[in-house]
């Protein structure tokens, strides 16, 4: 790997300083009431410096969601290549909540609120890396007859995301009154029992070309999503076993 120059290292430090200052302001005032000038004052940088790194406040917020997503790329192999799809779903829920469980509760709640307010074009869940990984895990589980196939991978993935996001939001809104990771470990296996394949369910495996969502990819994720999609497509099980 090519060594970074001192200028590149300085840019990374400055960008991180702005992000840390923004998080401090978000916890103090809330995202909705934090101004760019507040962030710049906290970071000790000019407004011009802020705009050198971010187009606006939402751009900074989205950069943190992207950082979260990049963490899922690190565990994609582990989730997709696990022969037990139900176990992978439990691991997925664990990875989805791990960052929230070690973060400040107020900050976590602010980012969860921001996720709701951002537009589809800015942050479309069905085309973020974690959703593509989740659809791949579910489809392979359907092929192995471990997961019910009377619903499409995207429909089941929507249920998983509704549950995991709901737990994160509840935990943050309750000011972290319970251990999030313990609760997820206890409750998610109960939820995923409803995903288990049973012979009496209709078996309507969707076409392999319908598994991975491809529409409306946010520009922020174009490169990462293209690379991930290529990997996921190479891992899809095309024959019913």
How does this model look, in words?
The chain is mainly alpha-helical. The chain is 66% helix and 0% strand. The protein is built from ten helices and no strands. The protein has helices at 6-29, 36-43, 47-53, 57-80, 85-102, 105-117, 129-143, 153-173, 180-193, 222-235. Helix 4 packs antiparallel against helix 5 and helix 6 packs across helix 8. It is globular, with a radius of gyration of 20 Å. The N and C termini lie far apart (42 Å).
Give a topology summary:
Layout: H1 6-29, H2 36-43, H3 47-53, H4 57-80, H5 85-102, H6 105-117, H7 129-143, H8 153-173, H9 180-193, H10 222-235
Helix pairs in contact: 1-2, 4-5, 4-7, 5-7, 5-8, 5-9, 6-8, 7-8, 7-10
Short description:
The protein has 241 residues and is mainly alpha-helical.
Based on CA inertia axes, which overall geometry fits?
globular
Count of beta strands: 0
What string, H for helix and E for strand, traces the elements in order? HHHHHHHHHH
- In DSSP terms (H or I, runs of 4 or more residues), the helix count works out at 10
Low-pLDDT windows of residues: none
> What proportion of the residues form beta strands (DSSP E)?
under 5%
How much is the radius of gyration in Å?
20 Å
Query: On the 0-100 scale, what is the average pLDDT?
Result: 84
Helix content: 55-70%
**What is the terminal separation in angstroms?**
42 Å
Largest sheet: none
Structural class: mainly alpha
Features of this protein?
mainly alpha, 0% strand
């Amino acid at each position: 790997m090519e060594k970074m120059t001192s200028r590149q290292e300085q840019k990374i430090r400055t960008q991180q300083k702005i992000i840390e200052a923004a998080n401090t302001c978000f916890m103090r005032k809330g995202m909705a009431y934090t101004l760019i000038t507040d962030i710049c004052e906290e970071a000790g940088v000019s407004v011009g410096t802020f705009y050198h790194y971010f187009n606006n406040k939402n751009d900074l917020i989205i950069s943190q969601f992207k950082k979260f997503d990049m963490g899922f790329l690190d565990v994609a192999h582990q989730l997709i290549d696990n022969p037990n799809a139900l176990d992978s779903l439990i691991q997925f829920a664990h990875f989805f909540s791990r960052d929230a469980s070690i973060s400040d509760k107020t900050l976590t709640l602010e980012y969860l609120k921001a996720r709701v307010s951002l537009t589809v074009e800015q942050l479309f869940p069905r085309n973020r890396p974690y959703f593509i990984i989740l659809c791949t895990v579910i489809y392979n589980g359907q092929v192995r007859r471990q997961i019910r196939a009377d619903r499409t991978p995207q429909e089941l993935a929507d249920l998983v995301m509704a549950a995991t996001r709901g737990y994160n939001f509840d935990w943050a809104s309750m000011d972290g009154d319970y251990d999030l990771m313990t609760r997820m470990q206890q409750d998610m296996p109960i939820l995923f029992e409803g995903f288990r394949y049973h012979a009496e369910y209709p078996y309507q495996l969707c076409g392999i070309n319908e598994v991975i969502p491809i529409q409306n990819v946010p520009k922020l994720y174009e490169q990462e999503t293209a690379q991930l999609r290529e990997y996921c497509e190479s891992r899809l099980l095309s024959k019913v076993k």
